Amino acid sequence: MKKTGFSLVEIMIAVAIIALLAAVAVPGLLRARIVANESATQATLKSIAKAYELYAAENGGAYPTDETDLTSGTNPYLSRTYDGAVLEGFTYTVTPGSAGYSIKAMGNPGKTSSVQGYLITTGAVMSTID
Fold it and tell me: Is 2 inside a domain boundary?
């Protein structure tokens, strides 16, 4: 009577192959996550800036002096406030003013982004912060 099954060597080879495949795939998946976080953060910043610019266009060029001006009313410009919020690993800081605005999203380089952060200012001008 012959016993069927896998020998220890066969199992060790299978585990080594799986470990090798995981070692190749995991860095790519982590990089994809970082790129997704950065893209989502840039899109969020552009949406916030668009709300500020639309508010100014509808109010004689005056920007809101408080972020809640954008979230109140029957037709709010934004559905939520972002100052102090943490989304996709980025912490948002909103600085409104009657003459303009600046919105900063600071990340954790290496874990949530490849850059330290993004800054968008009056006129929807975006730049990276190193």
Answer: no
pLDDT in tens, 24-49: 998 888 889 999 999 999 999 999 99
Most confident of 4-8, 74-78, 109-113: 74-78
Indicate the burial class of 18 (C-beta count within 10 angstroms; 0-12, 13-18, 19 or more): exposed
What is this structure's pTM? 0.81
Range of the domain at 88: 8-129
* C-alpha–C-alpha distance, residues 123 and 46, integer Å: 10
Does some domain include residue 1? no
The answer for residues whose C-beta is within 8 angstroms of residue 100's C-beta and 6 or more apart is 63, 121, 122, 123
Up-side HSE of residue 2: CA atoms within 13 Å toward CB? 3
- What gap in Å lies between CA 27 and CA 118, rounded to an integer? 24
**3 inside domain:** no
Work out the angle at residue 10's Cα, subtended by the Cα atoms of residues 6 and 11, and round it to the nearest 5 degrees. 80
Domain count, the chain: 1
